[in-house]
Amino acid sequence: MEKLAYKLNTSDTLNRLGSLYEDRDQSKIFAILNVPNKNFMDFQKNNKAGICAYPNPKKRIVFWDKVFKERTPLLDDCIPCAYLSEMDQGLYGGIFGADVRFLCFLETGWISSMSSPFLDDLEELFQLELKKDSEWYKRYVNQLNIFVEKASDNFGISNLIVLDGFNFIFDLIGATNTYITAMEEPEVVRRAIDFAFDLNVEIHNDFFNIVPLLDNGTCSIEVSWVPGKIITESVDPFHMTNVDYFEEWGREPVERLFAEFDGGIIHIHSNGRHLLESVSTIKGLKAINLFDEKGYPTSFSILDKIKKQIKSTPISLEVSLSDFNEGLDRHTLPGGILYKVNQVKDIDSANRLMERVRSYRA
Length: 362
Description:
Blueprint: H1 10-21, E1 30-33, H2 38-46, E2 50-52, H3 57-70, E3 81-82, H4 90-94, E4 100-105, E5 110-115, H5 135-151, E6 156-157, H6 165-173, H7 175-184, H8 186-210, E7 217-220, E8 224-227, E9 231-234, H9 243-249, H10 251-260, E10 264-268, H11 276-279, E11 285-290, H12 303-310, E12 315-320, H13 321-330, E13 337-342, H14 347-359
């Protein structure tokens, strides 16, 4: 698949994104422009935020089809792609029988999943095995097939979040018990990390066996599109630790899984910024997606510091329209960054803004 019907400038966008993630081009800036969407407004009217039931995947993909179809004239650097938020983190516990719960997020249109810790002792993990005929794995494959069939050549399907290493063990025994077990029984934790590696290889190989690449690249809700078979990771458990602890427990599992595919993306929350310099040196890393939370300065406001830490590593981050416009006017926007610009009035305004983005040189 090389072009998308719901992305009029597919080829140009893929060429631009390729220069960011393959060439690490620091001379250009890139932008995803968020405009109002009637289908999100309808979703907010017809749903309630909070705990909900597992939704019908056929209805979910119809919703995303309408969202992306409305955005067809938008000529920014976004590759439209649907994410299986219903599988999200809940898949990993669900396939072993954990209690999976769903949350509805009105602003994003997501219905996300998580599972409760379900093992009393980590040693119990090694009595479990992946059964692809289990209810949750069949749900996973079924939803992938439904999404791929409906998306067709119109829009892409985003890769899924990986849950390996400490992230996976959190799902099994909870965060506190994970840290305690790592201190008291480190070899058991290392065996669990190996288990998680094998599990993720199966889950994400099945993803790529079902979901076609777009021009030999992977669609991503975090960074739009990256050449190759790319997975999306997080180092969330180490946001609450120092860098040395990340180096001891976090780096190797990430690098091993990245090497199994064609590399990967990592997202970092505000409380994990102390890891940026270390994370930017991970082998196989293609990009870092930065999340902003309340109580911390925005990533955009400390961009000079961040760029010094990560050097030429591509990043994506959110920025208000006013701050972005000011950066354009003053010519102060650093290159090599995918800016996610909020509060853009409409598609026509966005397309005019993209003319400035394409002509900008850092």
